[in-house]
Amino acid sequence: MVFPGVSPRELKRMLKRMGINVKELKNVNRITLETNEKVFIIEDPQVLMFDSGKQKIFQIIANRIIEETAPMESKKEALEISLSDEDIKFVAEQAGVSLEKAREALIKTKGDLAEAILLLRESGS
């Protein structure tokens, strides 16, 4: 939290007096925001949660953002399939493609590593 002339400690005290608790969420690996046209994947974010009891407000400080445009079907499939970063990196290395192409192939193959690698090698991607 950055406010000119106010230390983070003092700001927390002021917010607490107003009934707002501030908590940093630790170990957040990824946040996905979806719009009708795009998907924003925020990797390794810093996340603060402001809790006033009635509502929670999240402040996200992005270190790395990936923007994707994907059809609705792909987005739904991606949400249903749990893809690990290790699997994506492995497929990318084995097929000699970008992480994004590896992720897309894993979504098409419903997470099957071998099938994704073969798909990418056959298509020459």
Plain-language structure description:
The chain is α+β, with helices and mostly antiparallel strands and about 120 residues long. The protein has two domains: about 1-70, Ubiquitin Ligase Nedd4, Chain: W; about 70-125, Helicase, Ruva Protein, domain 3. Helix content is about 40%, strand content about 25%. It is built from five helices and six strands; from the N terminus they run αββββββαααα. The strands form two sheets. The chain has a three-stranded antiparallel beta sheet, covered by helices on one side. A three-stranded antiparallel beta sheet has the order 2-3-6, with no helix packed on it. A hairpin with a 4-residue loop joins β2 and β3. The protein is elongated, with a radius of gyration of 20 Å. It starts with 7 loop residues before the first helix and ends with a helix. The model has no long low-confidence stretch (mean pLDDT about 85).
| Radius of gyration based on Cα positions | 20 Å
Proportion of helical residues: 40-55%
Q: What's the CATH C level of the largest domain?
A: Mainly Beta
- State the CATH topology of the largest domain: Ubiquitin Ligase Nedd4, Chain: W
Number of helices: 5
What's the average pLDDT? 84
Per DSSP, what share of the residues sits in E-state strands of 2 or more residues?
Answer: 25-35%
- Number of strand elements: 6
Low-confidence stretches: none
| Separation of the first and last Cα atoms | 43 Å
What characteristics describe this protein?
125 residues; alpha+beta; Ubiquitin Ligase Nedd4, Chain: W; Helicase, Ruva Protein, domain 3; three-stranded antiparallel beta sheet; 41% helix; elongated
